[in-house]
Amino acid sequence: MRRTIFDLDVLRTFATGMELGNFARAADRLGRSTSAVSAQLKKLEEQAGTPIFRKAGRGLALTDAGETMLAYARRLLELNDEAAAAVQSIELEGWVRLGLQEDFGETLLPEVLGRFARAHPKVRIEARVVRNVELIERVTSGKLDLALAWSDGTLTPHCEKIAEVPMRWIGPADGAVDWSLGSGEPVPLASLEAPCLLRTAATKALDTSGIPWRLAFVSPSLGGLWAATAAGLGISIRTPIGLPRKVKPLAANDAGLPELPSLGLVVHRAEAEPGPATARLAAIMLQSVREAVGDAVPSAIQPAATAYA
């Protein structure tokens, strides 16, 4: 059996096109003609030995094999870039100030900081795990270089939406909350302190459906929220990302609860062209975010690439 060796240059074009949602834009970014990009994508399908793309309206979307290929392409490119930085003795120095929403603090931060510190030990990182409002305020005031936040509709000068993640009702992993739709009792909610995007979305959905609710537990931290939810004090509202084992998503229909909308995930940058250290940390963070979101919600990050000339 002939061994398949994927072309990293082709994989970079593929990953860039999917990231931008358009291969014409990828051609501009990579300094290639659209015909050259088209030839590279054809080569990728030949190397893969299976269709990577399928028709989706007037554009293209990924097949199941294409989604698998994209995940591996990102990992291969990330490893290649880390190896290049290591063997070429690229000594990044300086200071990067990173902010993360609480859902990603425990699950994402250790991996991101570990990978970055191993490759660039001379860079100092200041990380803050805080609520959305503070993240956006700190980016716009120049107190953070980079922030990962849920979208409340606020746009900063240099922000990029990277995913659309569904919100879910969350209950205890073992047992159930002492509430049912026919009980006549209001839904007991466990929530973070206001302002909270997810709490607002949940109460709006309940009000629209005519379902009464009450705040059974309010916490200033995510850890307190998980403890209360696991104990059955109330139903909480989060996304499927970073859930501890002691809680689980509830099927809205089975629980008698309304469906919830999705929530955008946005990267905010303080500058349009960040320094090398910030840019490198952003690349590592985005890779980890894609993997975390992709594991929890496989369809959340797959943009459909539109047709190109």
TrEMBL record:
GO terms for molecular function: DNA binding; DNA-binding transcription factor activity. Gene3D superfamilies: Periplasmic binding protein-like II, Winged helix-like DNA-binding domain superfamily/Winged helix DNA-binding domain. Residues 6-63 form the HTH lysR-type domain. Keywords: DNA-binding, Transcription, Transcription regulation. It holds the Pfam family HTH_1. It comes from the Bacteria. Belongs to the LysR transcriptional regulatory family. This is LysR family transcriptional regulator.
